[in-house]
Amino acid sequence: MIELPPPNVLAAALTRKSPRRDTHAEWRNWCETRLQFVPAAQLMFHQWKSLSLRERSLYDLYRTATHVNLTLQETPMSMKVSRLVNRRVRNNALKQKPSTRAGVMVSGWGYQGKTETVCEVLATFEQDWRALHDHLNPHAVEGTRDLHAPVAYVQTPVTAKPKSTCQAILDFFGADTKKMTLPELMRQVTASLHDHGVKALVLDDITRLRMHRADDQDSLDLIRAFMSMNVTLILIGVDIPHSGLLREGKWDGEARQWVLPPSRHARVHGLEATQTERRFDLVELDRFRYTTPGQITAFHDHLTGLEDNLRLLKARPGMLTSGTMPEYLMRRTDGVVGLLERLIEDGAQEAMDSGRELLDEDLLDEIIISLDDPGRDPAAGEIPAIPGSPVPDTAPASAAPARPRKGRNTVFDDHGPELAQPGA
Ligand SMILES: Nc1ncnc2c1ncn2[C@@H]1O[C@H](COP(=O)(O)OP(=O)(O)OP(=O)(O)O)[C@@H](O)[C@H]1O
Ligand SMILES: [Mg+2]
Ligand 2: distance of its center to the CA of 325 in Å? Predict the structure, then answer.
């Protein structure tokens, strides 16, 4: 007897609201529902053949939903980032001292999973923190105190100015910011972070700030000022070391952290009395590589995970991991997790449409990976180069040649950890 999904499961899968996260309500909805999707059962071809036409089309719809909702898998690279973000946020949240909290910068190239990795860690943190809160204060009644928002997720506006950056943060809480001046906005941000009990503030796509623009420098300065509000600041961006964000910073080799000078905004707006420097851990989310046995195993494990998620009727075990397939997939995607997901997702659709019902190199050769995602800014390097495709017209900001500058002799400086380049 073949089990088809109960209609309510299928309806829930097909009518889910868009998984946006940039308001408090959307963030909470995403946190609570992100693990709810139940993949379709695996059927073999003869089982599918025995279904009625209506059942077949329902099942096909369900497996398409399964293919476009591939699970987020742990990789050695994502674990390195998760561990650091998790440690910082949890330790900082428990810290009683009034000193500023060290932040985290998560760097990597486009489509390598920065946003998903960080959001996943913070969703778990939020759930644990809420549970602890409710355990300590079980009588708190929803609606009778300020909205509790342990995590605030904000995307950096494409043309960030101090005002629009404040507005983006306040939009998360649904605050009305019309006609507010910058000092008013800053006071409102301070009050919101405090009143809503924010422990971690994520600013995603921070490398949309171009440090040659005065407005953008002011925005970064303002963002640093938020660190005096006892929140853990998490900045996510493409190739942060070469983006100019750290231009004013110096590397502290002993603590293995970047140190940025105190924020001017904090002084101007009286957010703090002392001029505390800001410290950041910088962590790189790398792509898959295929050189050492450990790297090869990690890539194979990921492919096994992908294969387990596919519901193709003529799939054979080892379809993605045997023969020359791993090398082929590496070549097609350069080991970038998001490109791999896109290739497999589109390949699975093609396998269903054509009736081939399995993935092989011939079928995948027909798939052109295209990333037409309006939510990503190509000029900020958020769309990676796709192997075999022409280089996009808009080069990433980080690719802009740096203006030569005379300076002191830096031969003996410790420049911090060397970060990987794409294609290296
Ligand atoms: N560990 C993972 N396992 C499986 N899929 C992943 C993983 N990490 C990311 N992905 C997928 O890769 C795609 C790109 O991920 P994400 O948006 O987090 O990348 P990003 O580094 O933030 O990119 P950008 O710089 O363009 O913002 C997503 O569709 C996501 O589902
Ligand atoms: Mg992202």
Answer: 28
